[in-house]
Design goal:
Blueprint lengths: L8 E4 L3 H12 L4 E5 L7 H4 L3 E3 L9 H17 L7 E2 L1 E8 L21 E7 L4 E3 L2 H14 L3 E4 L2 E7 L2 E7 L2 E4 L2 E4 L17 E11 L8 E8 L5 E2 L2 E4 L5 E8 L16 H12 L10 E10 L5 E4 L6 E5 L5 H18 L14 H5 L6
Parallel strand pairs: 1-2, 1-12, 2-8, 5-14, 12-20
Antiparallel strand pairs: 3-7, 4-7, 5-6, 9-10, 10-11, 13-17, 13-18, 14-15, 14-16, 16-17, 19-20
Bound molecules: flavin-adenine dinucleotide.
Length: 371
């Protein structure tokens, strides 16, 4: 049921999670304003792989969120009516290393592009279970669809949340109060700042690096999860995602590093680009000798127990949080956005049980820092 008279909701952060919440709220006719300090999808939501899997979260509390999201991604690819690189694909485990790996005498024709030192060892996913999107284009598509239904995008830095008598009264944006009684914190790893304004558990960022290449020969729709052993014996797990537009994305090289104040200040380590280039060349002659179009870094948002925070902020009526999706934020954005919209509009999420993701869970279990 649409709620055109619902109170306006302010969403802080225009990454994939903020855009998904805005999209599903706008479908319900709720007036929405998104506040973004830098640019839409400027952080992890624009620099991720965009890999989607139906059942890779099975056995964890994320399973229902992931399974619902995988189906919603298929629905959205139809409903949004724009091409943002959604497709089903095969996913392979590949062994590779600086010292080379024993190759079989013959390789199936479909794997002929892996003509260097990478050896496929296992099928991890089929087109029935794995898929991909271009994450920046997907985030923009969600936002444009929300804007077509009246959502507003306002550029500015959220500096605080005004709370009085246990209720949200407004959002401080660039020194000015934007009045609202409902706010969603969706600032990715920067959601950690909101713990200064609201009683929230910690959120921080884990840095990852990536490059994009533009080979001249087409690469088949095969995602690779590579087990790479360096010349010093270190085990690395880079990932490779050929995209429908001919781009090939490689990521790896995760590290604990201090989160800069804003996304523009995030810089890749100098050695990360050349190293990912070297791994690409180790896998396929089609990827050798190419200058990367982009060498970049970003921070995925993580929490103490590795699960997202999705739900109402304890003790503050009208405040919600949606973050902490770690390495599955692109996959889990649709079900997170839908469930958050249901929670905000109906008072209860129906499509996915959000209980495992409630922000007050750490305090209820007596674990982690108290909220
Ligand atoms: C290398 C790498 C590869 C990945 N690959 C995949 C993948 O293949 N599949 C998958 O499902 N997930 C993947 N992920 C995870 C995914 O990218 C993230 O979980 C997801 O993008 C997080 O989205 P978000 O909207 O929560 O945060 P973000 O994308 O960080 O967006 C937060 C937004 O909030 C804004 N903001 C911050 N502070 C403020 C403020 N004070 N005021 C206003 N705006 C503010 C920022 O500018 C930013 O635009 C990957 C992550 C990394 C690092």
């Amino acid at each position: 049921m649409p709620y055109p008279n619902h109170a306006p909701v302010v969403i802080c952060g225009a990454g994939v999670i903020g855009a998904a919440v805005a999209y599903y709220l706008s479908l319900r006719g709720v007036p929405v304003t998104l506040i973004e300090r830098s640019a839409v999808a400027c952080a992890a939501s624009g620099k991720a792989g965009g890999f989607l899997a139906l059942d890779w979260c099975d056995g964890s509390p994320l399973a229902p969120l992931a399974r619902t999201s995988f189906q919603l991604h298929a629905d959205l690819a139809q409903a949004l009516g724009v091409d943002y690189g959604y497709r089903r694909l095969t996913t392979l485990a590949v062994a590779a290393g600086a010292h080379g790996v024993q190759r079989p005498d013959t390789m199936p024709e479909a794997l002929a592009w892996l003509d260097s030192q990478g050896v496929p060892t296992r099928v991890l996913g089929t087109p029935a279970t794995t898929a991909q999107v271009h994450p920046a284009q997907f985030t923009h598509a969600l936002l444009h669809a929300a804007q077509a239904r009246g959502a507003q995008l306002r550029m500015g830095c959220v500096e605080g949340i005004d709370v009085s008598a246990g209720k949200v009264r407004g959002v401080q944006v660039d020194g000015t109060l934007l009045p609202t009684e409902q706010v969603v914190i969706a600032m990715g790893p920067w959601s950690g700042c909101a713990a200064q304004w609201l009683p929230l558990p910690p959120v921080w960022g884990l840095k990852g690096h990536s490059i994009t290449l533009k080979p001249t020969t087409p690469i088949p729709a095969q995602a690779l999860f590579v087990q790479y052993i360096t010349d010093t014996g270190e085990h690395l797990e880079p990932e490779v995602y050929p995209r429908p537009d001919g781009e090939v994305y490689l990521c790896g090289f995760s590290e604990q590093a201090a989160l800069p104040e804003s996304p523009e200040l995030v810089q890749p380590r100098p050695e990360a680009g050349p190293f990912l280039q070297h791994i690409a060349a180790t896998l396929s002659s089609s990827l050798a000798g190419l200058t990367p179009e982009r060498v970049q870094a970003c921070y995925r948002p993580v929490t103490d127990d590795g699960l997202p925070l999705l739900g109402p902020v304890p003790e503050v009526a009208g405040a919600y949080i949606a973050t902490g999706h770690s390495c599955w934020g692109i996959l889990n954005a649709p079900a997170s956005g839908l469930a958050m919209a249901e929670l905000i509009v109906d008072g209860r999420a129906r499509s996915v049980d959000l209980t495992p993701f409630e922000p007050q869970r750490a305090a209820l279990r007596g674990q982690g820092k108290p909220v």
